[in-house]
Amino acid sequence: MKIEETIIKGCYLITPRSFTDNRGSLTKIYHELMFQEMGLDVQFREEYFSVSSKGVLRGLHFQIPPMQHAKCVTCVSGKIFDVVVDLRKNSPTFGKHFCTELDGKTPSLLYVPEGLAHGFVSLEDDSIFLNRSTTVYSPECDRGIHWDSCGIVWPDLDLIISHKDQEMPDFENFNSPF
């Protein structure tokens, strides 16, 4: 696996090796020892996937302490525009964001440390997003910031956004616990 730090400290793009032959391909997206060798000594506690139509925006989500988590995300089919926002008050990139495309045809992962909000928009119908996190979902600790309050230039699509995500507080009105 190849690891590259993004502009957000502790947030990494990871490119796994893929093996292709006449049958198709095989891509290993997690291997505990490889992650440890890259300095990412994490234990994932929950894993889930979502399937989204083109234009579906999910985010910007995170969990507050004591259930904050690191996560590792990827797109296994289709394509997504993936975004993180640094919510860590003492970070030099506090309030800054990083965007990348994750494409099921070109496997890559985004490692998101604790204290970052995360979201994405599906660029194709039936995009499958896979999320692995270090804590389990906690409704009491579930939070978010408004998707359109951080200066992110989202893809020019007719966005489909849940009521919950439309009602999230703006970044400017969010008092970060990180």
UniProtKB/TrEMBL annotation:
Xref: CDD domains: cupin_RmlC
GO cellular component: cytosol
BP term (GO), one: dTDP-rhamnose biosynthetic process
Gene3D superfamilies reported in the protein's UniProt record: Jelly Rolls (2.60.120.10)
Catalytic activity as recorded in UniProt: dTDP-4-dehydro-6-deoxy-alpha-D-glucose = dTDP-4-dehydro-beta-L-rhamnose
Residue(s) at site: Participates in a stacking interaction with the thymidine ring of dTDP-4-oxo-6-deoxyglucose: 137
Pathway participation: Carbohydrate biosynthesis; dTDP-L-rhamnose biosynthesis
Pfam assignment, any one: dTDP_sugar_isom
GO molecular function: dTDP-4-dehydrorhamnose 3,5-epimerase activity
Domain of life assignment: Bacteria
InterPro entries named among the record's database cross-references: RmlC-like, RmlC-like_jellyroll, RmlC_Cupin_sf
Enzyme Commission designation: 5.1.3.13
SUPFAM superfamilies registered for this protein in UniProt: RmlC-like cupins (SSF51182)
UniProt keyword list: Isomerase
Subunit and partners: Homodimer.
Record's function text: Catalyzes the epimerization of the C3' and C5'positions of dTDP-6-deoxy-D-xylo-4-hexulose, forming dTDP-6-deoxy-L-lyxo-4-hexulose.
Family: Belongs to the dTDP-4-dehydrorhamnose 3,5-epimerase family.
Protein name in the entry: dTDP-4-dehydrorhamnose 3,5-epimerase
Source organism per UniProt: Mongoliibacter ruber
